[in-house]
Amino acid sequence: MNERARPEAVSTSLENSAFFMPFSMNRAFKKAPRLLARAEGMYYYTPEGRKILDGTAGLWCVNAGHCRKKIVEAVQKGVATLDFAPPFQMGHPLAFEFADRLVPLLPKGMTRVFFTNSGSESVDTALKLALAYHRVRGEGHRMRLIGREKGYHGVNFGGTAVGGIVGNRKIFGALVAGVDHMRHTHDPTKNAFSRGQPQHGAELAEDLERICQLHDPSTIAAVIVEPVACSAGVYVPPQGYLQKLREICDRHGILLIFDEVINAWGRLGKPFAADYFGVMPDLITTAKGITNGTVPMGAVLMKENLYQTFMTGPENTIEMPHGYTYSAHPVACAAGLGTLEVYQEEGLLTRVGELAKYWEDAAHSMRDCPNVVDIRNLGLIAAIELAPRAGAPGARGLEAHLKAFEKGVYMRVTGDVIAFAPPLIIKKEEIDQLFGTAREILKTLP
Ligand code: PXG
Ligand code: PLP
To answer: Distance between CA atoms of 71 and 333, rounded to whole angstroms?
Structure first.
């Protein structure tokens, strides 16, 4: 037994814990931890038993609410039946069943599913699929990948490279060659306090045409965007913008990838954002809500023609030399099947349609609070942007986050932007509690 494993060596303080926390202020957190011990429905419970309203669906993933019986039981049964099965050159029934059950929910024309274990893996998988697709078709000269400023596409190399959040990129060197970025679509001078999709900015899609002319379109494999950019601070696409991106991609034979890791699974009131916006990408990356966050899983969804392109060589070759040890993990498939049942029984993939107006009004009622410089919303997503405190950007946002936790609300903060995206089972009273707590905090926050 090593030192750390001995019961007497275990300290109740977290200050010296071995756990290197991801995307966290490790030292500050370990001095003043915020722990969640249990969860049910709309609520987390701390180890002391304090009840915390979940304003962010965990990390934008627990769309059906926490510890749903059907999903828990599906996982329990799944793990007791088949703990693991090798996914390469072997299979298990749930993988095929889950993929086939997903297809009717997908935007029309999307017919094939490649499983991963996270959004980051989905993004890197989709980028590789795009490059390989062109290569297999004899257009291997299409090697460039285009992302967008303020985009978040996870943390693997491809996703970091096409991502557009400076702080997530700058310390990791040159990343992947051949990547370029379009301008972001955020224009507060014209669009501040827009309700839903901003009116101005469709023309920003022309930035893709500029990039095409700079590099020559024949060098570009794919463009990846989040329809609603969530992580960087909730940027809703201007009216007509996504349609224009689609047109430019079509004009030049470029694949369009929608990163719907957050946007999918009912967040906008449709199963997928592609349906909500009426714009069809060639590939969709997703994760999170696919298993209600219960077991890690992601997927890349694709159009039939892409899949068929890979199926053209000799039958005794591996069509896609890519995949993960845990692709289509049986326990994740079980969780996914349980999740789909809950979504369907409760109509959760379209429920937001009924709630969106109430939600929008509640979000925009925050406009008179001190330091609020913008409010953005779509579906069951809202962001309240605060003016940064002089000389201390992010401080006001962080304090709001900490105070909210004290007051029994979990809200996500990125810089000085507060973001809300609760489970889709939220009740109107709970919406009032979320924004009511935020209002109380903002009124007193220096
Ligand atoms: N693409 C998008 C659009 C995402 O939102 C990923 C890829 C990566 O997924 P994984 O499963 O590898 O984390 C995401 C994930 C936040 C936050 O607080 C958002 C994400 C992850 C962690 C935190 O905004 N989005
Ligand atoms: N590194 C090594 C040495 C491996 O053997 C493997 C998988 O077999 C990996 C990385 C990739 O791991 P995963 O398939 O879980 O992504």
So the answer is: 11
Position 113, amino acid: V
Q: Say what the pLDDT of residue 8 is.
A: 53
Residue 436 is encoded by which pair of tokens? 């009511």
Closest ligand to Cα 325:
2
What is the pLDDT averaged over residues 63-74? 98
pTM for the model stands at 0.95
Q: Is the pLDDT of residue 415 over 80?
A: yes
Q: What is the pLDDT of residues 88-128, one digit of tens each?
A: 999 999 999 999 999 999 999 999 999 999 999 999 999 99
For residue 133, report the distance from its CA to the centre of ligand 1, in Å: 25
Rounded to the nearest angstrom, the distance between the alpha carbon of 318 and the centre of ligand 1 is 30
* pLDDT band at 1; cut points 50, 70, 90: very low
Distance 48 CA to ligand 1 centre (A): 29
Atom of ligand 2 nearest to the CA of 327: 14
The full set of domains in the chain, from first to last, is 34-64+350-444 (3.90.1150.10), 70-345 (3.40.640.10)
Residue whose CA lies nearest to ligand 1 atom number 9 = 119
19 token code pair: 């756990």
CA nearest 417: which of 209, 166, 260, 234? Answer: 234
Helix axes 348-364, 428-444, angle to 10 degrees: 30
Whole-number Å distance, alpha carbon 86 to ligand 2 midpoint, is 13
For ligand 2, mutation pick of 297, 324, 325, 329 (most atoms within 8 Å of CB): 325
Helix or strand holding residue 94 (H, E): helix 93-102
Angle at the Cα of 267 (from 431 to 224), degrees rounded to 5? Answer: 140
